[in-house]
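Q: Here's a chain of 378 amino acids. Please give me its 3D structure as tokens.
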Amino acid sequence: MAKRDYYETLGVSKSATADEIKKSYRRLAMKHHPDRNKDDGGKSEKKFKEAREAYEVLKDSEKKSIYDQFGHDGLRAGGGGQGGFGNTEGFGDIFGDVFGDIFGGGGRRGGGQRAFRGADIGYELKLDLEKAVAGDTVNIEVPTQIGCNSCDGSGAKKGTSPEKCTTCDGVGQVRMQQGIFSVQQPCPACKGVGTTISDPCEKCHGRGRIRKTRTIKVKVPAGVDDGNRIRLSGEGEAGRMGGPAGDLYVELRIAKHKIFERDGANLACEVPISFSTATLGGVVKLPTLDGNVSLKVPAGTQSGKIFRLRGKGVVTVRDARKGDMFAQVAVETPISLTADQEELLRKFETSVMKGGDKHSPRADGWVDSVKSFFDRIS
């Protein structure tokens, strides 16, 4: 079953502010919490989990950005919002985390110093049709967060180390009483990490990461099409506290071609031919991505006729067999004629008219259609 849209789950629009998202989540969390709906057969439990999953993504600006660009697929690799609801997590923990956020927490549960996975990032790569069909290797410049080499990602000044948080005793969370509820929330001193830094690194200012533009090599397989995405595992932003890096999603955009239009494995193009070639027949040169080929045009070819050239299309990423090319001829009307050419054309027209309808294969059908149309409306 397709996963429900996160904005729809929370009942907010994509333009909703962070406060609006949080307010909607609070309302749903209170309404559907399992402890308040024990006799509905698990329906509220399901809605409670869906709301929490949606909020975990939309409250995080990085995850929200990925979701807005790539939807659920962008988060599938573990960028956030799709985990945390398995059988290993009891409702006591869920309850504490939800109401911890409601009453001013909003962090992740801790158990000592936590390692945080880096965010996934997206990049739009533009290619021309030829490179998309043949495949290519491209170097791209991606601004991202990398681990600070001065402190090895710890955030503490070189020669020092993060210290166990004295507020939460390194657990990363504190408990507080809210009426009848015992609420667990991220430690306000260490923000749920479990450690504090008294002497931060001068280069990264205690963040453990710095922003840098990286050059990344992307191997584009043959046959990619517009909208295809390439996932580069571990090429996203660096994790925090020793956590793994996120992934890089490269979305391909194929530039409009001057000659061809692509539909999967097939190509289509328009081929202008002269009035005389269409009338008498002939051979015209037709471009393909493999070079020119000869197209035989029969005598009496009408403008708009489509010729199919088998095997002159392209491959796709799923099938190495080439598709076909469809060439539609367009008969060009001569322009800028000399007086002699105009006179010859008038004589030709007079000669054709003497032959009646036999020189105009579509004339009879068109006249009959017009006559039938006026008979119906009269």
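Q: Can you summarize the key feature?
A: Residues 1-89 form a domain with the Helix Hairpins fold (CATH 1.10.287.110).
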